[in-house]
Amino acid sequence: MKGASSESLCDAETLLRQIMARNKDSMMKMSYMQLQNKELANIAVSNIFMVVYKRLYKYPGIEKKKAWIYAIAVKEWRRQSRRKAFGMKPLILTQRR
């Protein structure tokens, strides 16, 4: 997060851990159902939570909104499905420019 103090980064990391604890299992199950591949599902879940972390500061109080997280997930599932359909390697968030 740009320009964030170390205290706010710790808060964001704590918040992300809470969000992941609440949603990781359901995200993993849904990702596997959508992608039919365990490796792709793991990558997708990692990417989903990376996007959630990057956008936490934009939407205060959003951590309890599953719809927001699932909207991010749907976009990620589509992205990974398209890459798979075209025979491309899975896109890992840290590889993006």
Which terms summarize this structure?
97 residues, 70% helix
Report the mean per-residue pLDDT as an integer.
86
Specify the overall morphology.
elongated
Assembly form of the protein: single chain
Task: Give the DSSP E fraction (strand runs of 2 or more residues).
Answer: under 5%
Distance between the termini: 16 Å
How many extended strands? 0
Structural class: mainly alpha
Mind telling me the C-alpha Rg?
14 Å
Main sheet overview: none
What is the chain-wise order of helices and strands? HHH
Which regions are unreliable across 5 or more consecutive residues at pLDDT < 50?
A: none
DSSP helix fraction: over 70%
Please tally the helical runs, counting DSSP H or I stretches of 4 or more residues.
3
